[in-house]
Specification:
The chain has 110 residues and is α/β, with parallel strands linked by helices. 31% of the residues lie in helices and 25% in strands. The protein is built from four helices and five strands. It has helices at residues 12-17, 35-51, 67-72, 98-102; strands at 4-6, 25-30, 54-59, 79-84, 87-93.
Amino acid sequence: MAQIINVSLQNFESDISSPSMERPIVLTFVSARYPECSNLLTSLEKLSEELGFSLGKVDLDIPENQAFIQYFRISGVPDTRIIIKGDIVDIIHGVLSAQALQKPHPILLL
């Protein structure tokens, strides 16, 4: 399985923002209170191996990570952002169906 980057305020720049200049980053915001977050994360992890993007996870149950909610305007979880060259190029709210996850997201094929 691909490595999931556990994202915090301390490593966001070095592990997400800067590397997005070289390769796509899929950043997902999750909470253990919602089982669908775990299911989505597992599916994204498998897909990241196939397509070669990096996968970051922001655990919103960690108090210091609450700052991400306002910065990214998170209104619910799971919430996923696709970052390329430092820009958010797509936002996926909620859980994607298994069928949707089987089809690579077109933006990740760039």
